[in-house]
Queue: 2 jobs
Job 1
Amino acid sequence: KEVILIPEDYKFQSIYPNPFNPVTTIPFAIPVDSQIKIDVYDLKGNHIDQLVNQNYNAGFHQIVWSPNNISSGLYFIQFQTPTYISKQKVIFIK
């Protein structure tokens, strides 16, 4: 029998590696099927990139970000569902 683990709560897990070059992994967990948005912002709050804007099934997921055409520096990754929002800082080093 297959066992499928479903988290109890939304969780925006630690992004790794951080600092990173050239890619970083963004893991997250969702307790119910949800519309997920993951966006990248710079220090001034400017929207840099949208990594995800789609439905995901309940469970544990991860995406990989490999930035193009951005400079080294500190960025914020925002994870958002209809009922939960969280941000993490990442450092991109060229």
Job 2
Amino acid sequence: MAKKSATKRRDGRYMAYAVLPSGRKAVYAGTEEDAVRMALLLEEEAREYEENVKFTFSGVFSRWFL
């Protein structure tokens, strides 16, 4: 996995992106380490949710058409 980094914005906050199944989400924090940690935490939670979700017929049927 590539190392994540955060960029400093003009307002002094740091921004990192969490790559989720639904798309990218910007995460803001006061320090670079906190922004990266929060982004990794969001990615891990999304991965765990995808592994634990129980598929219903309607969900599987709609995924099959994709």
